[in-house]
Write a structure and sequence with these properties.
The complex is a heterodimer.
Chain A (H helix, E strand, L loop, with lengths): L6 H21 L3 H26 L5 H31 L13
Chain B lengths: L1 H21 L3 H21 L3 H26 L11 H24 L13 H9 L7 H22 L1 H11 L1
The chains are: A mainly alpha, B mainly alpha.
């Protein structure tokens, strides 16, 4: 745990970042920007896993191990999403959400 | 000392997160996200979990950001300004997000966490043993599942990104 910092301050930080991600997810109209917002949400949840493990159950490792799995799944998701975006750009020449009407391979 | 470092890192993260979802230039938005991710790594360093901080820096700052810059350069002109949502929609979403933050924070601050004072560091050896242990509470099964998932994603990403050409060739032969 961080000396002098309570768990409330850390949870406040992650809550704010999570809702900034939600705000971006709703207002953005571009697939890559939406992916950026999703990354923000994912990172907020990863910090939450780690700090709750470190502050409340310091003898256990479940939270810190699951954070590794979350990072692996997030990396996989980003790679697939970017390959889908590139393929979509080749087929319809745009990455705006409103132009995305087909998902047919 | 750690207190001030934490506040500086938190301020940087929040400012750049807001910049990342509001910037109208794609490339800048990705770079702002890079600063947020480095701030997350800083939090992990502060909390004495160096292994995950190193993973965060290599996987996110080194991998995903480069991938995103790559895709931005492939699908955009660098000076292209993004179209933004209607002002009314932005305001409504901002109000909804603020209400969400309020609900979360009242819930968090009204709950009395049973914090255990400690200065434990998580060593990499402990994590490795736990990941590979097949006794009770071990994580060998998720570890293997993740490795299969990564393999599947690697192949899937190549197939999807090459999609157009593969189908063209098939159509020519048939």
């Amino acid at each position: 745990m961080i000396a002098g910092i309570s768990i409330y301050e850390l949870l406040t930080l992650t809550t704010v970042i999570f809702f900034i991600g939600v705000y971006g997810f709703i207002t953005r109209k571009n697939l890559i920007s939406i992916l950026i917002s999703v990354e923000l949400i994912m990172n907020a949840s990863v910090i939450n896993f780690v700090i709750i493990n470190k502050y409340l159950y310091p003898d256990m490792l479940q939270g810190v191990l699951f954070s590794i799995f979350i990072i692996a799944v997030a990396a996989a998701e980003a790679a697939l999403a970017i390959s889908i975006i590139i393929n979509l750009y080749r087929q319809i020449g745009s990455v705006e959400v409103k132009d995305t009407e087909i998902m047919k391979y | 000392m750690e207190r001030y470092i934490f506040y500086i890192v938190a301020a940087i993260m929040i400012v750049f997160a807001i910049a990342a979802v509001n910037s109208r230039k794609m490339m800048r938005s990705v770079i702002y996200l890079l600063f947020v991710l480095m701030g997350v790594a800083g939090i992990f360093f502060l909390i004495d979990y160096n292994f995950l901080a190193a993973i965060q820096l290599t996987v996110y700052a080194g991998g995903i950001i480069v991938l995103m810059i790559f895709s931005v350069l492939l699908v955009h002109h660098i000076e292209l300004e993004l179209e933004i949502a209607k002002t009314s929609k932005r305001i409504i979403t901002a109000i909804a997000s603020l209400i969400g933050i309020g609900v979360f924070l009242t819930t968090i601050y009204s709950y009395n966490f049973n914090v255990i004072e400690n200065t434990k560091t998580t060593t990499t050896a402990e994590i490795g043993e736990k990941l590979l242990s097949y006794s009770e509470g071990g994580f060998i099964l998720p570890f293997e599942v993740i490795s299969v998932l990564l393999l599947a994603v690697m192949i899937g990403a190549i197939v999807i990104a090459k999609g157009g050409k593969l189908t063209d060739k098939n159509e020519e032969t048939t």
